[in-house]
From TrEMBL:
Gene3D superfamilies registered for this protein in UniProt: 3.50.70.10
Upper lineage: Bacteria, Pseudomonadati, Pseudomonadota, Gammaproteobacteria, Oceanospirillales
InterPro entries in UniProt: Chalcone_isomerase, Chalcone_isomerase_3-sand, Chalcone_isomerase_sf
Domain Chalcone isomerase residue range list: 19-183
Name of this protein: Chalcone isomerase family protein
GO molecular-function terms, A-Z: isomerase activity
Disulfide bond in keyword set: no
Isomerase among keywords: yes
Ranges in coiled-coil conformation: none
Length: 185
């Protein structure tokens, strides 16, 4: 009986080491896309007006709590958004991303405007509760966007990916609690 209890405890511990749950969403410890394996840096819930909108999970090569190091890194990183609310629509998501870019660039949208217009197409299809978006930045290659495992687009330019990640990790993030949870795991 004691051996069975030890076996059960070790299986339970190994399971919790490989996945965690945030907002009812199972978040894996690692994310592998296009032969790039990244480790969960941290995850949290994006809230607005007391509503849970999505789970944001940050994946990096090396865990850190320094946002500037991540944003300026020459290493791949990824942001995973798991939609929790049916209130998120394609139009609202596009509008929110545009606002985020406005804030992240300090209003200097000219260098990214055309690429942002192309990126917004990621949100053209209907967004439903349970959808998963992944934005993976690979320096030198660009920002790759996926919805529910399907590659939608690649936007060239490290500056674009850095600006996108500033929406969550910059000086004026979309949600301070989400930023803290993604950086402190």
């Amino acid at each position: 009986m004691k051996k069975l209890a030890v076996l059960f405890a070790s299986l339970l511990m190994s399971f919790t080491l490989h996945a965690k749950e945030v907002g009812g969403v199972s978040i894996e410890d690692q994310l592998t896309i296009d032969n790039q394996t990244l480790t969960l840096n941290g995850a949290g819930i994006r809230k607005k007006f007391f509503m849970d909108l999505y789970v944001g999970s940050l994946y990096t090569q090396n865990r850190t709590s320094d946002a500037n190091t991540l944003i300026n890194s020459k290493a791949p990183m990824a942001m995973q958004l798991d939609i929790l609310s049916g209130m998120i629509t394609s139009e609202k998501m596009a509008s929110t991303v545009k606002e985020g870019f406005e804030t992240a660039t300090g209003g200097n949208m000219a260098p990214v405007r055309e690429r942002l217009d192309n990126f917004i197409g990621v949100f053209n299809e209907k967004i439903e509760k349970g959808d998963r978006f992944i934005m993976m930045m690979v320096p030198g290659e660009g920002l790759m966007a996926y919805k529910n495992g399907k590659h939608l687009t690649t936007i060239k330019g490290d500056d674009f990916g850095q600006t996108l990640f500033k929406i969550w990790l910059g000086e004026k993030p979309a949600d301070h609690n989400l930023k803290r949870n993604m950086l402190n795991g």
